[in-house]
Amino acid sequence: MINALRGMKDTIGEDAEVYSYFIDTCTKIAKNYGFELIETPILEETALFKRSVGESSDIVGKEMYQFIDKGDNDVCLRPEGTAGVVRAFIQQKMDKAGGIRRFFYHGPMFRYERPQKGRLRQFHQFGVETFGESSVKEDATLVLMLKEMFEALGIGSKLQINSLGCPSCMPQYREKLVHFLNTKEGLCEDCQRRKQTNPIRVLDCKNEYCQKLLEDAPLLKDNLCSTCRDDFEELKRILETFGVSYEVTPKLVRGLDYYSKTAFEFVSDEIGAQSAIAGGGRYDRLVEFLDGKPTFGVGFAMGIERLSELVKMPQKSREGFYMGALCEEAMDSISRLVFDRRKSDKTFTIYEPKSLKSHLKNADKLYVKFCVCIGEDELRDGNIWIKNLESKEERLVKIEDFKGV
Ligand SMILES: [Zn+2]
Ligand SMILES: [Zn+2]
Questions:
Q1: How many domains is the chain partitioned into structurally?
Q2: What is the pLDDT at residue 255?
Q3: Ligand closest to CA 261
Q4: How much distance in Å is there from the Cα of 226 to the middle of ligand 1?
Q5: Which residues of the chain are modeled with pLDDT < 70?
Q6: Does residue 185 lie within any of the structural domains?
Q7: Cα 71 to Cα 266: distance, rounded to the nearest angstrom
Q8: Model-level pTM?
Q9: Would you give the DSSP letter of residue 65?
């Protein structure tokens, strides 16, 4: 017997219902906010992720499904969604066309990491990206949209925000931070390395001793230029206007150079220790970084499997029809009814005559609202027998009147 690969799973039954409910709910909200669907290939050139996600990141350094294809191309299964969308944006010359474009995407992503609860090697993300809008109002709008998605899905969450500065204030801050770090002894091995390659990442080190050393570290929020500070204040003002509570989290950072200004995360303590359930922010230099024309960018992404267990599904109600013949002679009439009804309603049938009891049992299992049967008596009198499984009411209806039911 051949099994699915480790860390990959089949989605069926209840899981499949939650998954499609998640996608439908977020899609509807994203469309209401003016976002359009974008689908990019699952397989891309490895260089795309090396350049955008960064070779020093765990995702690219350790977790990529990377291989050489039959044409000797170095390719990999996408580990995240943004890089492909940005590549498409540039390749379709949308950067040159200018204006504002808003996209949402969803689909499978792949990371070769140790599988654990809520963390698969093939998992799914839903995300959005806005290109060409410099206003911090767009950042706030993305936060509000994500909040609305969580509310619609019944997911409780807390918002954390930070500003990562911009090219005119970030480098000075980084220097200050490195200077500070040089006065400290005992940083973990990772942080020793980060201090050289990416000092900002030291701030969110999980090592307790590192966190202790960082207690009086200079913080970004105290070192922002006036533009960054004004934007951050505006973001907070909008969130307050809309009654969204937030926490400013100075140690919420993103490791890559092209991230700037707004960074946000939604966290939940419903899945173990408080953990991030969605994250996003501004990446004004990513398009340029991938050889496009400089274009503002801001977006977010969330992992669907991690969130699935938090989704509160609406109460399931009976819907649709089940139709069955009680005798061989009624099979054709049932087939015709089924065919017609499927133009408007979910309709099940079975291709052989059964007893009324057995049809009712099937109908109940399928959780339909109506069970329809035709036997010898009904056939002779031009009737159909119909039972509403919600109200338990049974009646005979003339076959020509059935369309109105
Ligand atoms: Zn700045
Ligand atoms: Zn550390």
A1: 2
A2: 63
A3: 1
A4: 7
A5: 255-257, 274
A6: no
A7: 42
A8: 0.91
A9: E
